[in-house]
Amino acid sequence: MSAPSAKGANGDLVQGFKPRHVTMLSIAGIIGAGLFVGSGHAIAAAGPAAIVAYALSGLLVVLVMRMLGEMAVASPDTGSFSAYADQAIGRWAGFTIGWLYWWFWVLVIPIEAIAAGVILNNWFPQVETWVFALSMTLLLTVTNLFSVAKYGEFEFWFAMLKVVAIVAFIGLGAAALFGLLPGREVSGLHKLMGEHGGFMPNGWTAIFSALITTLFSFIGTEAVTIAAAESSDPSRNIAKATRSVIWRISVFYLLSILVIISVVPWNDPRLVEIGSYQRTLELLHIPNAQLLMDLVVLVAVASCLNSSVYIASRMIYSLSRRHDAPAFIQRTSAAGVPRAAVIASTLIGMFTTLLNFFAPGRLFEFLLASSGSIALLVYLAIAVSQLRMRGILRRRNHELVFRMWLFPWLTWLVIGIISFILAVMFIMPTHRIEVSSTLALTVIIILLSQTSRRTSPSGQSALGRRAVRG
């Protein structure tokens, strides 16, 4: 299929993202509320050694992004890894991983909406939390119904605010550690390790537990390949974004965690209670620490909610273009926006938001559990697809300008590591329900893929066709 037209004709998306949009999306795409709040759980579990868990999970994500980058640079596609799994593994794989990924981001919508609602309810208690949650979802859905350039602009400024907040946090922490903030003495990493059980107070097993927690903090990094397909030079933007993953993880995650574990004792009960960033600011005696962090987290969850709607809509749009979702989903506006995909994804997200407030709590928890291991399955699909796609591209005489390192050894290593993590999670009682629910959902979707027969408009099977672009 030809590249999308500038006017979004015939159901095509437009190349509306500017380079600065893609750059900022790639920089801040991995920054969510999990970093600002959830990192406290990993530190409380593993102590200062949590930074090892972040480094290991970050390294795994870097390798996965390198593999995805190889395929995405060679063949930019809005369906990204779902389209590549379709080509490299089989129709059932692209169908399954696409619907799983869509389901994951549809469930992120209520999670982020509820988080935003709680913050706003604390400020304005006269308004119910669910009203704020639905209002926030509706507002950010509207931003996704404009042109992709408008969405890119909204997300650009959301991302910019997150980056500024993290850089300021790291700067304050560094200044305190070097004694440049009067009246704000901190212990420093060497003292904390000496007084609170050392670098690994809970042993190596705690690092593995923290690794599982931290690994899910990075989900969303791969979405830049979806967004870049709607830019004017997708191959170049994808390669640039993929190369920047290493320093993004190093700066935003590793330096942040280093500051936190240098200031806050790992066994401080408020680390989990109020979040790692807020507790750090409190110990640095920064005025209005709670208000500052509420503002930052609100921006982070709004950004994530905004992105969730975008990512979910583009994935189900791609599935529709490959005849794996209802045909009406692929319709686009004159501006090239898949409005049916946006509205359909948002309606499911809003419905699950209401379930959290008005249905038995266990139902919402069960839905969340069903998405608990999807990120690892996505990474596994990317690795297997790249392993097989290399040969497909070679047979097409396609010259690779962006390659996975040490192929195929590192690819096989990633496949082995992800399989091992899934197996261990299944053994661990605290994670067994997540793996079991996700695998059950996966089996159901695979069976659904076998019951439908996809054909192109000409009546020929879509297997073996080149994936639909943009």
UniProtKB/TrEMBL annotation:
Keywords: Membrane, Transmembrane, Transmembrane helix, Transport. PROSITE patterns: AMINO_ACID_PERMEASE_1. It comes from the Bacteria. Residues 21-438 form the Amino acid permease/ SLC12A domain. It is found in: Membrane. One of its GO terms (molecular function) is gamma-aminobutyric acid transmembrane transporter activity. InterPro entries: AA-permease/SLC12A_dom (IPR004841), Amino_acid_permease_CS (IPR004840), GABA_permease (IPR011265). Gene3D superfamilies: Amino acid/polyamine transporter I. Its main location: membrane. The chain crosses the membrane at residues 21-37, 43-65, 100-124, 130-149, 156-183, 203-224, 245-266, 291-312, 340-360, 366-384, 405-427, 433-449. GO terms for cellular component: membrane. It holds the Pfam family AA_permease. It is a multi-pass membrane protein. This is GABA permease. The gene is gabP.
